[in-house]
Amino acid sequence: MDFRSVRWELEATDRRMLDKRMSATQAMELVHDGDHVAIGGTLYSRTPMALVFALLKTRRRHLTISRPLTCYEAELFYAAGMADRVITSWIGIGLKWGLPQIMRHYVETGQAVYEEWSHLGIGLRYKAGAMGVPFLPALTMLGSDIARTVELREVDCPYTGQRLAALPALNPDVALIHAHRSDIYGNVQVDGYRHMDVDMARAARRVIVSVEQIVSSDEIRALPTTTILPHFAVDAIVEAPFGAYPSECYGLYHADLRHFDEYVNLVKAKGPDGAREYIAEHVDQHDDFAGFLASLPPGTLDDLVAAAKRLAP
Cis (ω within 30 of 0) for the bond into 246? Predict the structure, then answer.
């Protein structure tokens, strides 16, 4: 892909102040078969699950998924027959839950590709895409088996002659992000850690953001240091309270570790059929993400809110 054409495409973005509110279902019209979909947050922190569930409902095909650290959502795309490739530095919920069995099944049977980069490598790839340059030089991955596997190119520094890794730009077709708040125009704010969301969004051709709350532009202007994306970098705003559940959203609610246990137990017992059973019960059975949240055991969300408050500084 010619990086200049991507840069010109991004620079031609409509910068008018437009009301970008829509439902998650409507926003998924921006995702097409064969797209590269980048997922914001990292592992089980601020994962845009309301958008992930909406995308799962579409059963789009031949997607490439990328994420800094990928949790169990990548396995759901594999099991649903939607993803051919995952680009990341990690797949799995965490050490407590063991190796990601669904990923291993699809990759080891040749049904899908797992493309592994270092965590820094993934971040620099998004940053190169956001900057509009073809690659960024770094020392990461040099001499490793990971570099050989992805056929990492190297360059000589024109100043010192030092051998450097050339991390190629990553320009997703669509970025899915979950944030704390925005106004109707798409000026997006995040409290706490930002992960790689800013570079990911700026590198992407289309950006869909779910938010815990839509607020007035005056409220956005009152907290300028928390704004991570300007309106012209965003294509769709979806209001989705608890939209990262079962992931955590900093300062608002903790991750639901018992929900992860439920998923892993299903997969251990039934393999890919267990992941499909999870999708049938938690995604397909409900009209939308709010319906899924309403099906949770009483008090679940209240307990997670209380846990987040106990952890807050």
Answer: yes
**Is 117:150 a contact under the CB 8 Å cutoff?**
yes
Which of these, 133, 151, 247, lies nearest to 199 by C-alpha position?
A: 133
The amino acid at 263: Y
E strand or H helix at 290: helix 289-294
Query: Measuring CA to CA, how many Å separate 235 from each of 30, 126, 228?
Result: 9, 18, 15
Quick: pLDDT tens for 251-309.
999 999 999 999 999 999 999 999 999 999 999 999 999 999 999 999 999 999 999 99
Which residues does 94 contact at the CB level (< 8 Å), separation at least 6? 43, 44
Q: Which tens digits make up the pLDDT trace of 216-254? A: 999 999 999 999 999 999 999 999 999 999 999 999 999
Residues contacting residue 127 through CB under 8 Å, at least 6 positions apart? 136, 199, 203
Q: Are 154 and 165 in contact (CB under 8 A)?
A: yes
Alpha helices in 28-100 (DSSP H): 49-58, 73-79
Angstrom distance (rounded) from CA 309 to CA 127: 33
pLDDT of 313 strictly over 80? no
Q: What is the pLDDT of residue 312?
A: 76
Percent of the chain's residues with pLDDT above 90: 92
What confidence score (pLDDT) does residue 1 get? Answer: 61
CB 203 within 8 A of CB 130: yes
CA distance 278 to 272: 10
Helix/strand/coil for 2: coil
Q: Which pLDDT value is given to residue 2? A: 72
Task: Give the pLDDT of residue 177.
Answer: 98
Nearest to 283 by CA among 32, 51, 89: 51
Beta partners for residue 21, in sequence order: 237
H-state helical runs in 153-288: 197-203, 217-222, 257-270, 272-279
Listed residue (95, 97, 90, 94) closest to 120, CA to CA? 90
3-state SS, one letter per residue, for 150-166 = CCCEEEECCCCCCEEEE
